[in-house]
Design goal:
5% strand; 6 helices; two-stranded antiparallel sheet; mainly alpha; 120 residues
Length: 120
């Protein structure tokens, strides 16, 4: 799975992962036997992703990331939009002010994909 990165103002690369993407990464590491479940931080992240992941399949997760990239939504806003999964454009824009830079139709298209409604 491609991992989205963006140059941070400090000059460092920053990764933005949705909860679904983090869940998939942890599942892969767990299957490979390289996940240290005795690590308190790892245990907390596992619990968090289990609690808040919307059970996206790997294919759906990749489709969402591809759509977000294709629509040109900046990584921070894209990841917040995915993780928060607002119901409406108005809710999305009030929670994530940077989305006001995008057309409503773009946000609607992304929200439909995130919420499992076919956009084709």
């Amino acid at each position: 799975m491609d991992t989205p990165t963006e140059e941070h103002p400090t000059g460092q690369n920053t990764m933005y992962l949705s909860i679904a993407e983090m869940s998939l990464c942890l599942e892969m590491k767990e299957k490979d036997g390289i996940l240290d479940k005795n690590n308190e931080l790892i245990e907390k992240v596992l619990n968090y992703t289990k609690q808040f992941n919307n059970s996206y399949s790997e294919e759906h997760t990749q489709a969402i990331r591809t759509l977000l990239s294709r629509e040109g939504i900046r990584e921070p806003e894209a990841t917040l939009l995915w993780n928060l999964s607002p119901s409406t454009v108005e809710e999305a824009q009030s929670l994530i002010p940077g989305l006001k830079d995008y057309h409503d139709e773009t946000i609607i298209k992304v929200l439909k994909e995130i919420n499992g409604v076919s956009t084709t």
